[in-house]
Amino acid sequence: MDKLGLVSKVRPRGVLTWRVPLATASSSALAIVLALTGGRHSSAPSAFDVRREMREQSIQRLTADLAAVRSSLATAPIGVDRATELRARIDAVEGEIKSIPEPDPASFTTVLPLNRTHAKILGIHGAMLAAHSLAPLVVWKTHRYDAVPFLADPSFSDGAPAIEISVMRGEYRADAILLTNATDQSIEVQVQLSDVPGSPRPDWLRVSTGEWTDTQQHTPVADALPDAPFSNNAYRFAVPGGMTLRIWFTVNGAKLEPGTYQGKLTVQSARYSMRVPATFRVSRVTMALPRLSLGTWDYTDGNGKLGITPQNKDAAIRLMRSHFVDSPWATRAVLPWPKADQFDEVGSLKDPLDFQALDSWIGFWPGARRYYVAIEASSSFAGAPIRTPQFATRLASWGRAVVEHARALGLASKGLGFLLVDEPRREEQNVVISEWARVLRTSAADLDLFEDPIFPRPDQVSPPEAFTLVDELCLHLGIYSRGGSPVARYFEERRAAGQRLWVYQTSGPVRLLDPTQYFRMQAWHAFSIHAIGIAFWSFGDTGGRASSWNEYATGTIAYAPAFIGPFDVTDSVHWQAVREGIEDYEYLSMLSDTAGSTADSGQRAAAMALRREALDELPGSYVREPSWNRNAPVHARPDVYRLRILSFLESIHPR
Questions:
Q1: Which pLDDT tens digit goes with each residue over 422-469?
Q2: 293-570 domain in CATH 3.10.350?
Q3: pLDDT > 70? residue 4
Q4: What are the distances in angstroms from CA 314 to CA 203, 353, 373, 566?
Q5: How far is the C-alpha of 179 from the C-alpha of 239, rounded, in Å?
Q6: Are the C-beta atoms of residues 488 and 529 closer than 8 Å to each other?
Q7: Alpha carbons 267 and 190: distance in angstroms, whole number
């Protein structure tokens, strides 16, 4: 569901409608009431209600999986005796479902399997796989961004698995393999890397296990990417019976010298061993810090907002920065807001302003490219209504003070930006924007003014100065794509006039969105319209829950791409797709640089042809709220083009 127009990027205003499974209806309805009333509710759920709700949702998960196993057994190509035995096990475990205990909300997560009864159900699936004459542990592969079926059957996987990762120096790229436990018991597995620099645990390689979690919509996803435990020279973890685990390998190209390294992964359990070839290639071409900016309305100022807390804020910022977030966001609370009596009769500030909150927030993000504040501008300032002399003089005095302080902090011109009104959609909001912008453009020209209009026809708004006076226009990709040529022409005209473009999206629930089409490809869309930044709502929005690890808890739609816990933040497949998109944009930009700088007409023509082909083929048409499914051509195509671009860049820089 697209949050556009329903949830503020500053204060969550709730979700008006959302289809939920019957078992989740009570908690979802309560969450909507809480959101629409600003959290005020006369009868908040008791601890007993919460435990009961989680138990009911757990029962729904177990019942659905038992039905799927029963259905698979009906058509499984196994002997009659084995089928009879497994049906008896299904009947027996079915009787256990209704008696599972209520979980402890303090420790419960939706990491799968949920409990012992669930493990038994999944184990029956593993026993069926064993009856197909599969090895106890099957190592196989699909594209790393494919959605893996929760009850996967690797019988028809193609070819021998291998890890192949090529990177420029300075970038991150990944690959993955899948391990299926074709037994009814959990298997302890170790993966050992050899024959490459730094083996068995090189600092340039991060190995993660793709944890399965259930969602509010009861669609399991293998999205979370916690670090794989390492001990005794190997990565070690358990694969529950009947389940498939994704093992994710991420290369940091800044930590490995150029060259091609042929290694191997030894995947081993008590009853199984297999060697998987692993090729890591680091190009002599270097990627500088990507030029495409990234923001996520993180609101890491003060004690944080949404799922960001004092306990997990440091971890959240580290993970954001490692994925190229260079444009952090703060709430209006970081700025001093003077009252009328703090100005003299000519509108000048009487005393210095207190910028401690702003300084503290900027201190968490040293060296960021831009700093944005959502200031929630209104129809007055310091007691003076817009379009009055007092409004203009007071706002101008305040704006100058803010700019002077920003300069004292060493921020470059336009390094500090204001979102005046979030997602303006009414004429009165446009009036506010235009009046604030008129004053600040003359009195505080170093401030960067940012707007994200959601009018279907921004070219027809009144007053037009609401969007012509700001420095940056952030267009919603869904509205832009539906607007056709008039909207595309309007934003291109604004860009030609010197304004900078951003692209953003606001769809959820995030776990069910396709990582490639929704996250990775946004950077390709941005490149095609010459945008300088992309943004997503929102790194911290867990749907009102204390943790991304428990979507059964009362809450609304979750948008946070990473997994936010009370004390830590964990990478995910979706969040890695964002980073790869940023790097893809840099590939396309480096290709364009070559086309614009080379004196060789043949090289220029080849670069332009490759760029044109890549953009014609990708991103193609915009897909709203693309579902995450197994769609290898969609997922693999960006890799094809980025490797072709890399090969071309290497060909014109032979040394």
A1: 999 999 999 999 999 999 999 999 999 999 999 999 999 999 999 999
A2: no
A3: no
A4: 22, 28, 19, 12
A5: 8
A6: yes
A7: 6
